[in-house]
Structure formats: structure tokens, C-alpha cells
Design goal:
The protein is mostly beta strands. The chain contains two helices and 17 strands.
Length: 230
């Protein structure tokens, strides 16, 4: 028996309404899904003694070396300054940089590692072994007797006890609204699901440049074998 034609239109309308309701109930994609894939630079094919193409080291002696059969970036212990590397990753409207870094401690001195993001201001996420602390700073300087002296401003800090026995990961992210998120973990342990520290910059992220920093206070080389940006 055929259904009356007058019932077909209401049935089609009900089916369309059911489809719309089901679509609205679908879960929104997670932030991990919508974020771009991590990009990285391989040091394996780089000749020792050089920097990767389009990288720059305005401070410190930094070059590709071979360590334990693996080519990696090295912050040399002399001169004993905090080295700075400009990574070619340029991020629009927010993004992140992370790096795997290692360096031996001395009897009384320890290395210091940091990754950075720079727009019209500059932010460094760094781990201080000597103080067992993870901190977010913005670098400043003052003039004393015609000499420029660094004077960092600490924006956020949390105690974090990590032994210098394995490589350390540092990850700094700035969301589009300018919220900074910092994570730190040892190689072989899980990446923290939630940030170790956060700090609102109260300004849009805009265009971000990526940087690496390391201070060989123990007078021993500091190695970076993995750098990624997103």
C-alpha cells in the first residue's frame, strides 16, 4: 500500500532536523588536531664546523659537531657567555618551539638551557639546574659605566627538580592571544599533559621568531640534537 503523498514532506523535514541535531552534538576537534605538524631540522647531513643554512649565532661560539657518532649543534664553552641562536622557524598568530639539550655539570657549576619566542618582546623558557627551577623571563639590560649588563625580568617561575643525568626537553608555546605555556621534562619520561607554568602577555602573539639559548657555566660543551617548531 502506497503512503499518501502528503506524508512525504513532513518525513523529509524530520529527517533533516535529526541530521542537524546529530551534527551539532559532534565533539569539536581537539587543540592537538588543529595544530600544525612539528617541523624540524636534521643535523645529520651538516658538515662539522658550520651552522645549518639560514641559522645565525649572534652571540657565542656555536657550530655543528660530531658527538658519539651523531652530528648535533654545540654551544662551545669558550667564550663563557650565554650563546644565542636564531632558528629560521617563523610562526604566525602563535606557535611553539622545543629542543632537546644536554650538558655536563661541574662540581660547583651547572649549565643553563633555554628556548625562546620573540615578537615585539622576547620570552625565554629556561631551566636552571643550580636552583632546580623552571622560569619564564624576558631579557633586559642596563648601562653601568658605559657597559651593558644583562638584567633579566622573571615573569613566572616554578620549582622543578630534574637531575642532570639525561637530555632535557624544553617547550615554549604562545597561543594566539599571547598566553605563554612552558613545559620541561627529561628524555625518557612523558611530556607533561598540562604546562608546568603559564603567563599571560596580554598582547596578541603576532609574528613569532624562534631562538635557542645556552650558558656553559660548567665550562663544558652544551649539545642540542633536536630542534622543532610548530
Amino acid at each position: 500500500m502506497k503512503k499518501p503523498t502528503s506524508l512525504i514532506l513532513p518525513l523529509l523535514l524530520l529527517a533533516g532536523l535529526y541530521w542537524l541535531l546529530r551534527k551539532s552534538d559532534a565533539p569539536a576537534p581537539s587543540s592537538e588536531t588543529v595544530q600544525a605538524a612539528w617541523q624540524s631540522e636534521s643535523f645529520a647531513a651538516m658538515p662539522p664546523g658550520d651552522l645549518p643554512p639560514n641559522w645565525a649565532a649572534p652571540r657565542g661560539t656555536i657550530q655543528i659537531v660530531e658527538n658519539a657518532g651523531v652530528r648535533m649543534l654545540c654551544f662551545m664553552p669558550e667564550p663563557m657567555v650565554e650563546g644565542r641562536v636564531l632558528v629560521p622557524g617563523v610562526l604566525r598568530g602563535g606557535g611553539a618551539i622545543r629542543a632537546r639539550m644536554s650538558g655536563e655539570s661541574g662540581k660547583r657549576a651547572h649549565p643553563r638551557f633555554a628556548v625562546g619566542l620573540k615578537n615585539d618582546a622576547e620570552y625565554h623558557l629556561r631551566y636552571v639546574f643550580a636552583e632546580k627551577r623552571l622560569e619564564l623571563i624576558t631579557p633586559n639590560s642596563v648601562e653601568v659605566n658605559d657597559t651593558t649588563i644583562p638584567e633579566d625580568q622573571r615573569l613566572a617561575s616554578v620549582p622543578l627538580d630534574i637531575a642532570n643525568t639525561s637530555p632535557l626537553w624544553l617547550e615554549l608555546r604562545m597561543n594566539a592571544d599571547g598566553l605563554c605555556e612552558g613545559r620541561c621534562w627529561s628524555e625518557g619520561t612523558p611530556r607533561p599533559a598540562t604546562p608546568n607554568l603559564t603567563h599571560p602577555t596580554n598582547r596578541p602573539a603576532g609574528l613569532l621568531h624562534t631562538t635557542l639559548h645556552a650558558a656553559p657555566f660548567a665550562l663544558k660543551p652544551i649539545y642540542v640534537d633536536r630542534v622543532e617548531w610548530q
